[in-house]
Write a structure and sequence with these properties.
- The complex is a heterodimer of chains A (321) and B (981).
- Helices cover 6% and strands 40% of the residues of chain A.
- Chain A contains 1 helix and 24 strands.
- Helices cover 30% and strands 28% of the residues of chain B.
- Chain B is of the alpha/beta class and 981 residues long.
- In chain B, strand 31 and strand 32 (649-656) form a beta hairpin.
- In chain B, strands 17-16-18-19-33-32-31-28 form an 8-stranded mixed beta sheet, sandwiched between helices.
- Classes of the chains: A mainly beta (321), B alpha/beta (981).
- Chains A and B meet through loops of A and helix 15 of B.
Chain lengths: 321, 981
C-alpha cells in the first residue's frame, strides 16, 4: 500500500477513535451515572461520592428498603437518607446525636418503619418512613434487653426483631416487634455458639433458621430461631467457601447473601454447608462494579441488590445474573 | 459586528485587490476563462487573508453567562446563628439560578480558601475548609475570588461579612475588582452584641526595681453603665479583686503593686459582669520585669533525687554574697507553665525528670529558655533522664551538649516498637491525622538502632486487610520512616485478633532487648481470642493502648475493654480526650523501649579536660560512680570534661545560643553517686557546675517598651545615659518568643538619637516575651519585656462595619442586601445587569495559515492543466489500486453479450454446414466454399484471411504512431540517462 493511502487510513483511524472516546468524556465522580444496560456484571446504577450534602455520603454503612422500593442509607455523619430506587434523593434526617459514635445498620420492621441500630448509644431507634422518631428501646448493660454495641438487625415474618451486639458480651437477642425482650444466646469467644463481633443476622422463618455473621471469627453460624446451634459455615480466607470479615447478611428468595468487608465482595453462601459455589459479585477496588470494605447489602422486591460500598462512599445497585 | 481589528489601518492593503483584478484582466497567460476566474478568486482570498492578518483581526463573541463567587466570613466575630442565616440565604438564592449561571464559595477568616469551584446547581453544605478564625482578611478573599473567575463571563462577588477586617486592605482590593469589571454585592452580617464589656489592656511599667511601688492600670471599655468585678493575677496568683462601677466608654482602675523578687511578672486582669455577652474579650495582660539577684530553679523527678543536691547548692551558691543566686526547689506538680514564669529564673536544673513530665510546649520552652533567653540548663542523670527519660528527638536534646542517639557504639541494647493504627472516628474528622502524628512522635523518640514498624488495616500490599503497612525495620535516619507514616491511610479494623498475632510474629523475628506494642484506637474493634495474648506474654512483648476520643468516653465500654487489654499485655492504658496531650504519652511509651541505655556498673570517672566547672578539683579525686545513662557527646563547641570507663560522657558542657547548658549523665543521689554524696568536694562541684550556667549579663540601664499594633509587634529601646545624653551606635541583639514558642530574631535599627526599633510578627493570640541584649561603649546588658494579645481581634469590634462594606459595594457598583429584606431580594443575586461580556479571539494565525494553504492552489490552477480524460484515467488507476472500490459492471455485461453472440454464431455456422453436407454431392463437398452466414457481411479484402494465409500488414498510420511514441520514449530515456537520473 502506498504511503499516502496509509496516511489516509491512519487519519480515518484516529478520527474513528476520537469519535469512540466522546461518550466517555462526561464528568467523573459524584453524580449518579447510568451504566449501559446489560453489562456483564449486572451493575444497574450507583450514586453518592464523599460529601456532607444531600445525595453524598461519609462511609455509608446500613441499608434498608421500604415497601415502595425506596432505599434508606445511614452513614458516618449520622444521617439517614432516603432515595428512590434509581438513586434520586428524597429526604434526609439526622439521628439524635453522634457525639460518641455512629449508627451501623438499618432494617424495615413488620409495619414498614425503619429500625436503626444506634450502636454507641446502646439502643434501637424506630423511625417512620418520613423520618419521624416513633420510639426506641435498649439501654447500656449486659442484661436482657440491654446492649453494649448493637450492630446487626433482622426482622422475622412474625415481626420479631433480632439484634446482634459485640463489645465483650457478644450475643444475639430477640425482641417482639414492640421491643420487648424474648430470648438471647451466645457469648464472646471462638468456640461453636460463641461470637467475636457478630456483625449481622438474617432470618429464614420457613426453615426455622437464624444466620449470624460472626465477623472477627470469619465465619457464619446457623441456629434455630430458639438459638440452638446447628453448624458453622466458612472460615478465614479468600476462596469460594471462605470468608473475610462477613459484615452483612440478607436472606433473599431462598438464598443467603453475605457482604464480605475483608474480601470486598457480595456472595451467596450454601446454607447447607456443602460448599456449593453460588452467586458472587464485586471485588476490592474503586471502579463502579468494585467494592471497598462494604458493610451491608439489601434486596428489593424486584430482586435488585443494593450494596453500601462504604469506603467508596457510594451505593451500588446491581442485579444477579 | 463579530470581528474587530487591532490595527485597522492595515486594512488599506485591501486596495491592492482591485489592482490584482485589473492585472488579471490584462494578462490571462493563455488560461481559459473559468480557470482565469478561479485564479483571480484565489488571489483575492489570499490578499484578503493577508490584509486581515496584518490588521490583527479578532473574532468577538458575547457571553451572557454569570459566575457568582460568594465570600463567606467564618471568623470568630460572626455568630453561628448569623452564619447559618447567610448560608441559607445563599442556598435559597441559588435555587433561582438559570442555565447561564454558576456559583462558587470561598470561606475566609485570617486567610481565604476555595470551598467549591464554580458549579451549578449550587448548595452550601457543611464547611470543610479550615481557615484561621482569629482574624478577618477581606482582601485575601476578594483577591482569591478575582483569581478564581473564569474568562469571558459576567462576574460578581457576594461578600458576606461584618466588615471588621483585622488584616489587609479591603478597599484597595475592591478597586482592583472594579478595574477587572467585577461587581461586589455585600451581605452585611448583623452583630447584635450591644452590651459588651471589654478589657482593653493592663498597663504596668516594663521594668521596676525590687520593692519599688507601682500601679497596674486596668483599662476597661463598656457599652453601658453597670457594676462589675475586676480580678488581678500576677503569674497566675491572685493579687487583687475589686468591685467597680463602669460608666459607658473607657474606664481605668489602678491596682498598687510592689514586688520583692527578681523576675518577669505577668499581670492578668479579668472583668466579670452578669450581663456581658462576649466573655472571650474580658481579659488582658501586661508585663513587668523586676531586676535583682539571679534565681536558680531545681526540678526533680522525686524528692529523693534532690535530697543531696539542693542543700549543696544552697550552701554553695545562695550563701555567697558576690556572684551568688537564690536556689528554689519545686516538685513536678509545680512546673512553670509559661515562658514568662521561666523568665523569673536565670538557671534551671533538671534532676532525673522524665520528658513525659513536660508538655510538648514546655519541652520547647526549656530549649527557648537557653537559646533565646540565655537561661542556663543543667540536666542531672538518673534512670528517667536523657535517652532513658525519653528526651531523644525533643527540643531539650537540642539544647544539651550530648545526644541520646548512640550511633557510634558497636553493641547497643536496642528496642523494638510496633504501632497498631486503627482509624479513629474523631468528631473533628482528624482521627487519622492524630494517629499518624503521634506515631511519628513515637518514632522520633527512638534511636537509629531501634526497630519500628506500623500495622494497620489497609491495602498497601494489594489485598485489603491487616498488614504491616511499614514492615519492622531499623529506625535509621528516620526521614524515610516518618514520610512513610505520613502516607498511611489506616482503615477501620473489625478486630485486634489478627493484627496482634501479626505483631507478635513480626516482633519475634527482630533481635531486640525490649519489645513493645502500642495500639492507637477509638476502642471499638473486638479483642483477640485464643492464645494471642498468651503468646505476647511468652515472647516478653508488652502492650499499651491509647484511646483517642473513645466511644462513650472514660466511662464507656471501649475504655474498659482497652484497659483490660493493656492489663493483659503488661502495659498502660491511656485515655486521651485531647489529642494535644498525646505526644507526652508517646514520650513515656517510647522511653520504655529505651531503658537499655542504663549502664549500672561501678566505674572510676576520668577527667579528660580541665574546665571552669572543675576548677580546684584534682583530676584523680573523683570517687567512683555506680551507673550512668549512655549518651554521645556532640561535636565542638560541646566539650566533655569527664568520661566513663566506656568512654561515654559523664560531664559535658557548651554554649547554646544565648545560654549555657551542662549534662551530667550519672545521678546526684545515693544510688549511682553514693560515693559522691559524702565526698567533700560534692557541694563545690555542683556549685561550680550550676554557677557556670547562670545567666550572667548585667541588667540593662535603658528602657525597653513593647507594643502591638494590628498583627505587628514593635520593640523600642530608648538609650539615655545617667547624664541624660543619647547613646548612639549600640550593637543590639534580641529575640521575640511568641505563644507557639517560636523565636524570631529582632533586627534593630536606630531611628533617632538614642532610639532603636525592631518589629516582629504578632498575629497569634497569646504572650510575646522579648529579650534584648546590647553592647556599647558603657558596657553590655540585657532587658526583658513582654506584651500579650489576650484574645482574638475578632472580639474587639462588636458592631457591623457598614461603612467599609458600603464603600466596597459603592466602588464596584454592587448592591447592599438589607437584612430586613433578604427574602425579597434573593432573586436579584443572580441578576444579569452587566453588559454582555465580549470575548475576543485573535484570528491572524488562522488567516496566515489560510493564505499559505491557498497559495499553492493558486499556482496549481495556473500551471497544472488537468483535463477530463486525465481525471478519468486517474480515477481508473485509483479504482484498480483500491480493491474496496466497486469494479465497473459494464465490462462484464459487454463480455457476456459478446460471448453469447459468438456462441450463437458458432451454432448457426455448424447448423448451415450440416444442412449443406446433407444436400450436396461428395464432389461439391470437396470444392464448394462454406456458405455465408445470414446477416454476415460478404467476404472482402478486409475480411480476415484464412489461417493459412500470411497476416495482413497493419495500417501504415498505426505503424507511424507506434514509431513516434517509441522514439519519444527513447529520447526521454536518453535525456534521463544524460542527466544521470
Amino acid at each position: 500500500m502506498h504511503g499516502w493511502a496509509r496516511r489516509l487510513l491512519a487519519a480515518f483511524g484516529v478520527l474513528f477513535l476520537a469519535l469512540l472516546s466522546l461518550p466517555g468524556c462526561g464528568p467523573e465522580g459524584a453524580a449518579a451515572v447510568e451504566p449501559a444496560a446489560g453489562r456483564p456484571d449486572g451493575l444497574v446504577t450507583w450514586w453518592g461520592g464523599r460529601g456532607a450534602i444531600s445525595g453524598r455520603f461519609q462511609s455509608p454503612r446500613g441499608l434498608a428498603v421500604d415497601r415502595q422500593g425506596n432505599v434508606y442509607v445511614v452513614d458516618l455523619s449520622c444521617r439517614v437518607q432516603k432515595f428512590t430506587p434509581d438513586g434520586r434523593h428524597l429526604l434526609t434526617w439526622t439521628l439524635p446525636s453522634n457525639q460518641i459514635g455512629n449508627p451501623e445498620d438499618l432494617a424495615t420492621d413488620r409495619d414498614g418503619n425503619i429500625l436503626v441500630t444506634d450502636t454507641h448509644y446502646y439502643r434501637i431507634l424506630r423511625y417512620s418512613t418520613e423520618g419521624k422518631l416513633l420510639n426506641m428501646f435498649g439501654a447500656r448493660g449486659e442484661g436482657p434487653g440491654e446492649f453494649i454495641f448493637p450492630v446487626g438487625l433482622a426482622v422475622g415474618k412474625d415481626g420479631a426483631i433480632y439484634v446482634t451486639e459485640y463489645g465483650g458480651n457478644d450475643r444475639v437477642q430477640v425482641f417482639t416487634s414492640e421491643g420487648k425482650f424474648l430470648r438471647q444466646w451466645g457469648k464472646f469467644g471462638d468456640a461453636p455458639g460463641e461470637f467475636n463481633r457478630p456483625q449481622d443476622v438474617a432470618v429464614d422463618d420457613d426453615r426455622d433458621r437464624v444466620y449470624v455473621a460472626d465477623a472477627a471469627n470469619h465465619r457464619l453460624q446457623v441456629f434455630t430461631r430458639e438459638g440452638e446451634f446447628i453448624r458453622i459455615l466458612g472460615g478465614a480466607g479468600e476462596g469460594p467457601s471462605e470468608l473475610s470479615y462477613p459484615y452483612g447478611l440478607d436472606w433473599h428468595q431462598g438464598r443467603l447473601i453475605v457482604t464480605e468487608y475483608g474480601n470486598g465482595r457480595v456472595r451467596e453462601v450454601d446454607v447447607e454447608g456443602r460448599g456449593r459455589a453460588g452467586l458472587s459479585w464485586g471485588r476490592t477496588g474503586r471502579d463502579p462494579g468494585s467494592l471497598h470494605t462494604p458493610w451491608h447489602t439489601v434486596h428489593d422486591a424486584t430482586g435488585a441488590c443494593y450494596v453500601a460500598d462504604t469506603d467508596n462512599h457510594r451505593i451500588q445497585k446491581f442485579r444477579w445474573k | 459586528m463579530p470581528f474587530s481589528f487591532v490595527t485597522p489601518v492595515a486594512l488599506a492593503l485591501l486596495a491592492v485587490i482591485p489592482l490584482a483584478w485589473w492585472l488579471a484582466s490584462r494578462s490571462r497567460s493563455g488560461l481559459d476563462r473559468w480557470r482565469s476566474g478561479i485564479a483571480t478568486t484565489l488571489r483575492t482570498l489570499i490578499l484578503l487573508a493577508l490584509a486581515g492578518a496584518i490588521a490583527e483581526t479578532q473574532w468577538v463573541r458575547s457571553s451572557d453567562e454569570l459566575v457568582l463567587i460568594a465570600c463567606l466570613d467564618v471568623s470568630k466575630s460572626i455568630p453561628e446563628a448569623r452564619a447559618k442565616e447567610a448560608r441559607e440565604f445563599l442556598t435559597e438564592a441559588a435555587k433561582r439560578m438559570t442555565e447561564h449561571d454558576k456559583a462558587s464559595l470561598i470561606v475566609f477568616g485570617g486567610e481565604a480558601s476555595m470551598e467549591t469551584a464554580p458549579t451549578r446547581p449550587f448548595e452550601v453544605g457543611q464547611i470543610a475548609s479550615i481557615v484561621p478564625r482569629d482574624h478577618t482578611d477581606i482582601s485575601s478573599a476578594l483577591r482569591l475570588a478575582l483569581a478564581a473567575f473564569p474568562e469571558g463571563v459576567q462576574r460578581r462577588v457576594l461578600l458576606i461579612s461584618d466588615g471588621n477586617a483585622s488584616r489587609g486592605d479591603a478597599i484597595a482590593e475592591a478597586r482592583a475588582a472594579k478595574a477587572a469589571g467585577v461587581r461586589i454585592d455585600v451581605y452585611p452580617v448583623p452583630l447584635d452584641q450591644k452590651r459588651d464589656i471589654l478589657c482593653e489592656a493592663v498597663v504596668c511599667p516594663s521594668e521596676v526595681k525590687k520593692n519599688e511601688s507601682f500601679d497596674a492600670k486596668v483599662i476597661v471599655r463598656s457599652e453601658e453603665e453597670t457594676e462589675a468585678t475586676i480580678t488581678l493575677f500576677r503569674n497566675g496568683q491572685l493579687v487583687g479583686r475589686e468591685p467597680v462601677h463602669l460608666v459607658k466608654g473607657k474606664n481605668a482602675f489602678l491596682f498598687p503593686q510592689k514586688v520583692v523578687d527578681q523576675g518577669m511578672y505577668e499581670y492578668q486582669a479579668v472583668i466579670e459582669t452578669g450581663t456581658d455577652k462576649v466573655p472571650e474579650n474580658n481579659r488582658a495582660s501586661g508585663f513587668s520585669y523586676v531586676q535583682g539577684k539571679p534565681r536558680v530553679l531545681v526540678l526533680a523527678g522525686s524528692d529523693a533525687d534532690a535530697q543531696f543536691l539542693v542543700p549543696a547548692l544552697k550552701q554553695e551558691i545562695e550563701a555567697v554574697a558576690e556572684g551568688g543566686a537564690n536556689v528554689e526547689y519545686r516538685s513536678l506538680a509545680n512546673i512553670p507553665q509559661s515562658l514568662a514564669e521561666f523568665q523569673n529564673y536565670d538557671g534551671l536544673v533538671l534532676v532525673n525528670v522524665n520528658a513525659g513530665s513536660f508538655s510538648p510546649a514546655q519541652l520547647q520552652m526549656l530549649e527557648s529558655n537557653v537559646h533565646d533567653l540565655g537561661i542556663g540548663l543543667v540536666m542531672v542523670g538518673g534512670d528517667d533522664s536523657f535517652g532513658a527519660g525519653g528526651y531523644l528527638g525533643t527540643p531539650v536534646e537540642r539544647a544539651l551538649p550530648v545526644t541520646m542517639d548512640l550511633k557510634q557504639r558497636e553493641v547497643m541494647p536496642n528496642g523494638a516498637l510496633a504501632v497498631v493504627l486503627h482509624t479513629c472516628e474523631l468528631s473533628d474528622g482528624r482521627g487519622n491525622y492524630w494517629a499518624k502524628k503521634i506515631t511519628q512522635a513515637a518514632v522520633e523518640r527512638l534511636s537509629s538502632q531501634d526497630y519500628a514498624g506500623v500495622l494497620d488495616y489497609g491495602g498497601t500490599g494489594g489485598r485489603w486487610g491487616e498488614e504491616w503497612a511499614i514492615p519492622m525495620q531499623l529506625v535509621g535516619t528516620k526521614s524515610g520512616l516518618l514520610q512513610a507514616i505520613a502516607g498511611l491511610s489506616p482503615g477501620d479494623m473489625p478486630s485486634f485478633h489478627t493484627i496482634l498475632d501479626m505483631a507478635e510474629k513480626g516482633l519475634k523475628k527482630v533481635n531486640a532487648a525490649l519489645k513493645h506494642i502500642i495500639i492507637i484506637t477509638d476502642g471499638d474493634p473486638s479483642p483477640p481470642t485464643g492464645n494471642v495474648m498468651a503468646n505476647l506474654r511468652a515472647g516478653k512483648v508488652t502492650l499499651s493502648t491509647v484511646l483517642i476520643d473513645a466511644h462513650g468516653g472514660r466511662a464507656g465500654p471501649c475504655y474498659q475493654a482497652m484497659k483490660k487489654l493493656a492489663d493483659e499485655g503488661g502495659g498502660s492504658a491511656y485515655f486521651c480526650d485531647d489529642p494535644n496531650h498525646l505526644p507526652q504519652i508517646f514520650v513515656k511509651e517510647a522511653a520504655l523501649v529505651r531503658k537499655g541505655l542504663l549502664f549500672e556498673e561501678e566505674f572510676k570517672p576520668k577527667m579528660v579536660s580541665s574546665s571552669e566547672l572543675l576548677r580546684g578539683i584534682p583530676s584523680g579525686s573523683f570517687p567512683s560512680l555506680k551507673g550512668y545513662v549512655a549518651t554521645t557527646a556532640k561535636p565542638a563547641p560541646a566539650e566533655v570534661s569527664i568520661i566513663s570507663h566506656h568512654q561515654d560522657p559523664v560531664l559535658a558542657q557548651w554554649q547554646y545560643g544565648l545560654g549555657k547548658s551542662v549534662a551530667f549523665t550519672s545521678d546526684a543521689k545515693n544510688r549511682w553517686a553514693a560515693n559522691w554524696v559524702s565526698w567533700d568536694a560534692y557541694a563545690k562541684f555542683w556549685g561550680q557546675v550550676v554557677r557556670w550556667t547562670i545567666r550572667t549579663a548585667p541588667p540593662g540601664q535603658y528602657r525597653v517598651t513593647t507594643t502591638v499594633q494590628g498583627s505587628t509587634g514593635k520593640v523600642v529601646l530608648d538609650a539615655i545615659d545617667p547624664e541624660g545624653r543619647f547613646v548612639n551606635f549600640l550593637t543590639l541583639k534580641g529575640v521575640a518568643v511568641g505563644p507557639k514558642l517560636e523565636g524570631e530574631d529582632l533586627q534593630f535599627q536606630q531611628v533617632a538619637p538614642g532610639r532603636y526599633e525592631a518589629q516582629f510578627d504578632a498575629s497569634k493570640v497569646g504572650s510575646y516575651l522579648v529579650n534584648v541584649g546590647y553592647q556599647g561603649p558603657e558596657g553590655s546588658g540585657y532587658h526583658a519585656s513582654g506584651v500579650a494579645i489576650p484574645y482574638s481581634p475578632e472580639y474587639k469590634d462588636q458592631t457591623t462595619n457598614m461603612g467599609t462594606l458600603e464603600q466596597i459595594a459603592e466602588i464596584t457598583r454592587g448592591k447592599v442586601f438589607r437584612p430586613d429584606r433578604l427574602r425579597q431580594e434573593q432573586s436579584s443575586l443572580f441578576r444579569h445587569d452587566q453588559k454582555a461580556f465580549q470575548r475576543s479571539q485573535p484570528l491572524w494565525p488562522w488567516l496566515l495559515v489560510f493564505a499559505a494553504c491557498l497559495f499553492p492552489l493558486d499556482i496549481a490552477v495556473r500551471r497544472v492543466i488537468i483535463e477530463k480524460k486525465d481525471m478519468m484515467a486517474a480515477w481508473e488507476k485509483v479504482r484498480e489500486r483500491l480493491p474496496v472500490l466497486p469494479k465497473p459492471a459494464l465490462v462484464e455485461k459487454v463480455d457476456a453479450r459478446l460471448s453469447a453472440l459468438l456462441s450463437r454464431k458458432k451454432a448457426v455456422r455448424e447448423e448451415m454446414e450440416g444442412r449443406r453436407v446433407f444436400n450436396a454431392t461428395p464432389e461439391e463437398l470437396d470444392k464448394a466454399p462454406p456458405p455465408p452466414i445470414a446477416g454476415a457481411p460478404p467476404p472482402s479484402a478486409a475480411s480476415p484471411a484464412p489461417p493459412a494465409a500470411p497476416a495482413a500488414p497493419p495500417p501504415t498510420a498505426k505503424k507511424d504512431d507506434v514509431d513516434y511514441t517509441a522514439r519519444l520514449l527513447e529520447a526521454k530515456r536518453r535525456a534521463k540517462k544524460d542527466k544521470g537520473v
